Amino acid sequence: MRRIGRPKPGRRGGARAGLEDFRVSARGVRLAGLLALSGACAHVEPPSGGPQDLSPPFLVRVQPESLSVVPGFKGPVRFEFDEGISERNVERSVLLAPAPGGVKIKKGKRSVSAEPRRGWEDGRVYHAVLLPVMRDLFGNQVKKPVRLVFSTGPEVPSNRVAGRVTDRITGRAVRDARIEARWLDGEVAYPSITDSVGAFELARLPAGQYRVIAFEDRNLNLAVDPLERADSTAVSMGIADSLTLRLRLLERDTTPPVAGLAAVIDSVTVALDFDDYLDPEQPADSIFASLFEVPAGPEVPVMRVLHGFEYDRQRVAAGPAPRDTAARDTAPRVPRAPQDTVREVVPRRRPGIAPRRPAPGAREAPAPAPQAREERAEPLPQRRVYLRLRAPLAAGSYRAEVSGARNVAGLIGGGAVAFEVKRPPPPPPPPPPPEKREP
Questions:
Q1: pLDDT digit string (tens) for 364-388?
Q2: What's the CA gap between 149 and 187, in Å, rounded?
Q3: What are phi and psi of 388, to 5 degrees?
Q4: What's the CA gap between 56 and 137, in Å, rounded?
Q5: How far apart are CA 56 and CA 347, in angstroms?
Q6: Burial class (CB in 10 A: 0-12, 13-18, 19+), 258
Q7: Omega into 64 within 30° of 0, i.e. cis?
Q8: Choice between 179 and 378, residue whose per-residue pLDDT is larger
Q9: Is the pLDDT confidence value at 341 over 70?
């Protein structure tokens, strides 16, 4: 067992500490009995006579040593804290991989341990992630996840894959998304989670072919369900590779986009609204649009189709436009959102305790690559495209037909929409001449 921190000031170790813990428990039992006999209602309160405990549990030991090679390992992975921990959330406090048969998690007075239900296998690299769900008896919660990596055979690799998870529609970072690097045969999945800015890191993976999956585990069943937003990509990892990924969560969709509304923006611009978000990465010239005057009028030439973000850029570049009597754009705009990662075993130092040099192999995980956090702004999906016409529209009835539009799920659709262009109202009559006054 590797000691990686120091207990709180005033704590004693050894047999005497165990004896003091036992005496505290005995006094607690006697007090509970007296309260039960008297019919009083008991509730947990911080002990009087000392400062209030506002610090979360502090990790002081792990087993086995981080980055160690332990052939024939038998015991459970164990995380020990400097104080008693609550039973709340213990059953989902540790992610362990590979563990195809599931994980057994147990709580001690000051520790939590985990092991595969089918036992440890030789020749494997194991990852144990302690999630930030543990609390002490006063409700103080651990702030950041901790990762412990060790091997039962081969040397621990030095590779790394990092990235960021965002919402595909809004561009906002997704916090607490579950990340898995799965072997392509599906047998093994190495886990992680995203931090407060959507960043994640998976390091020290066995070399091979993986599918990296990000998803919102809303029901906490550790599996991707049909109604949960997800994204994935295939990667190839060598023992010393370093990769940066971008994953964008999106709900599953099985229907193509359909055009449903048309709006006249000005005399040479018509907007078509779809019932789904369109893929901004699709070249707009691959979307085909035609415009006809009805019932039997000529075709109105369409000069160009623009995505919503392309139209916005052109309008900004052109500056304020003169008022057009045909129509004005009243479409709502999709708002752009403004823009802590799993660390290895060493915990944060408590105030008042001198810093310790980290043990070999037990060090803070490197921060995600700058690419994962400093992404260039990318266009967000919108439901609207714009048709630029070669000539102004006259008053009358029209029909717009569109095809080849791709939604964010990759499905192709289109549709036909009818609309009217009304005659502009006549100009107001000139004001009457002023009356002449007699002298």
A1: 444 444 443 444 578 999 999 999 9
A2: 19
A3: -95, 130
A4: 10
A5: 11
A6: middle
A7: yes
A8: 179
A9: no
**39-77 pLDDT, tens digit each:** 444 444 555 556 788 899 999 999 999 999 999 999 899
Contacts of 318 (CB under 8 A, 6+ apart): none
CA–CA distance, 169 with 306 (Å, rounded to integer): 19
Calpha distance 182→184 (Å, rounded) = 6
Q: What single letter denotes the amino acid at residue 313?
A: R
Please, which residues have CB within 8 angstroms of residue 214's CB and are 6 or more apart in sequence? 165, 174, 177, 178, 179, 194, 200, 230, 231, 232, 247, 249
- CA distance to 55, 176, 254, 306, 351, per residue, from 382 (Å): 45, 26, 18, 11, 49
Q: Which residue matches tokens 């008991």?
A: 42
Beta-carbon-side half-sphere exposure of residue 378 (alpha carbons within 13 Å): 15
**Separation of alpha carbons 387 and 400, rounded Å:** 9
Retrieve residue 313's tokens. Answer: 């850029």
Identify the bridge partners of residue 401 per DSSP, sorted by sequence position.
290, 416
What's the rounded mean pLDDT across residues 317-328? 61
What sign for the dihedral angle of Cα 270, 272, 278, 283? negative
pLDDT at position 48, please?
57
Secondary structure of residue 255 in the 3-state scheme: coil
Rounded Cα distance, 135 and 142, in Å: 6
> Taken in order 204, 210, 215, 220, is the CA torsion positive or negative?
negative
368 Cβ contact partners less than 8 Å away, ≥ 6 residues apart: 162, 163, 164, 199, 200, 201, 244, 341
Pairing of strands 242-249, 160-167: parallel
Q: What pTM did the predictor assign?
A: 0.69
CA distance 250 to 62: 37
* Pairing state between β 94-97 and 103-107: unpaired
Task: Report pLDDT for 322.
Answer: 58
What are the pLDDT digits (tens) for 193-237? 999 999 999 999 999 999 999 999 999 888 899 999 999 999 999
Residue 147's CB is within 10 A of a number of other CB atoms, namely 23
- Residue range 418-432: average pLDDT? 88
* Alpha helices, DSSP H, located in 155-227: none
Domains, in order of start, for the chain = 54-249 (2.60.40.3710), 259-334+381-421 (2.60.40.1220)
Across the beta sheet with 189-193, the strand order is: 189-193, 178-183, 208-215, 230-237
Task: Tell me the C-alpha distance between 184 and 208, whole Å.
Answer: 9
Rg (CA), the chain: 32
